[in-house]
Amino acid sequence: MNRLLAIIALCFCVLPARAEPGRHWQSIDPVSAGWSATALQPLRDYAELRKPTALLLVQNGALLASFGDPARKVGVASVRKSLLSALYGDAVADGRIKLDATLAELGVDEKAPGLTEQEKGATVRDLLTARSGIYLPAAHETPDIKEKRPLRGSHPPGTFWFYNNWDFNAPSTIYRQRTGEDIFESFARHIAAPIGMEDFSAKDGRYALSPVSLHPAYPFRLSARDLARFGVLFANGGSWEGRQLIPAGWVGESTARHSASDRPGRGYGYMWWTLPEDGFGKGAALASGYDGQQVAVIPGKRLVLVQTAESGSDGKGQRTRDFIAMLRKIVASAP
After folding, report:
1. What DSSP state is assigned to residue 115?
2. Confidence check: pLDDT of 285 > 80
3. Euclidean distance between CA atoms 8 and 4, whole angstroms
4. Smallest Cα–Cα separation from 55: which of 294, 287, 324?
């Protein structure tokens, strides 16, 4: 009997920590999870200085630290692009969307005078990797994009990376045309509900049209605690409680570095930023939005760090480079 009990105890010891949160987030003491008593001081200092709307650190599906209001929904800006990228996983896997299909083949165009023949040669993959060579005004583009946009026709499709809202908005048109699904209803049904998002509904998304383009932006409003669930889904390779919600191959491919970028230390995948293996480990990625919206996924340590911020609410703004610098310290200390 004693031997049987010992075997049972050993089995429990080697079981992996729960990888997903339950219905509600459970907090754990970082020290009991193997962190040093001072490991999270950079996170505390950052929260005190930056005062984001919310800042959450999660490991193995449990909440290690929380600052601000994790239930408050905010506009998450360009994080929307990584949310749409996640939806592409099933659509690509089942053949509804082909990555090598050209805009000409898909019948995707733009307002008069329309796309050139060269531009129509851009593929879905070129759009997702911001390498389309289509340099046209787009909905929800930032002043930085407008200022830096290359001359039209200056780079053939697939040859040059430029962070370009035209590339990110056209995939919303393609997704809706090829799947017949509304983006926000699809996200609610295929991702938000299965992973137990507590605050999101399809009404938290909208299409934002601009007079300059046929292709709308698709802004989302999400809470930090729901974004953290999305991050955990990617840290787990697209799996949630044993169910593969996003193909594992797509998670790996979309968060792999396909291009260098003009941001120091960052590459670009399929509408995800990638972080260097040196310091962050393999597969580390960042969904990042203007003025402080961040979802960092560090699969090697089953770590997710989420920040939300009301745009410009404190007059200081939130800088991605400061967030990444703090993240690097946290990852280095993580067990």
Report:
1. -
2. yes
3. 6
4. 294
For residues 245 and 234, what is the distance between their CA atoms, to the nearest angstrom?
10
Bridge partners of 213, per DSSP, are 210
Looking only at the bridges linking them, the beta strands covering 293-298 and 303-308 are antiparallel
| Chain centre to alpha carbon of residue 301 | 17
How far apart CA 282 and CA 235 sit, in angstroms, is 11
Question: How far apart are the C-alpha atoms of 224 and 47, rounded to whole Å?
Answer: 14
Both tokens assigned to 179:
């799947």
Q: Pick the closest to residue 302 from 266, 253, 335 (CA basis).
A: 335
CA distance 235 to 20: 10
**Joined tokens for residue 282:** 């393999």
Instruction: Name which of 88, 38, 79 is nearest 296 in CA terms.
Output: 79
Taking alpha carbons only, the member of 79, 61, 87, 82 closest to residue 189 is: 87
**Residue 85 and residue 254: Cα distance in Å, rounded?**
7
Q: Concatenated DSSP letters for 221-266?
A: EE-HHHHHHHHHHHHTTTEETTEESS-HHHHHHHTS--EE-SSTT-
Q: Mind listing the pLDDT tens digit for each residue in 252-275?
A: 999 999 999 999 889 999 999 999
**pLDDT, tens digit, 9 for 90 and up, residues 103-151:** 999 999 999 999 999 999 999 999 999 999 999 999 999 999 999 999 9
Domains within the chain, CATH numbers bracketed: 56-333 (3.40.710.10)
What is the DSSP code (8-state) at residue 192?
Answer: I
Element containing residue 193 per DSSP (H, E): none
- Taking the C-alpha atoms of residue 61 and residue 267, their distance in angstroms, rounded to an integer, is 26
pLDDT in tens, 44-89: 999 999 999 999 999 999 999 999 999 999 999 999 999 999 999 9
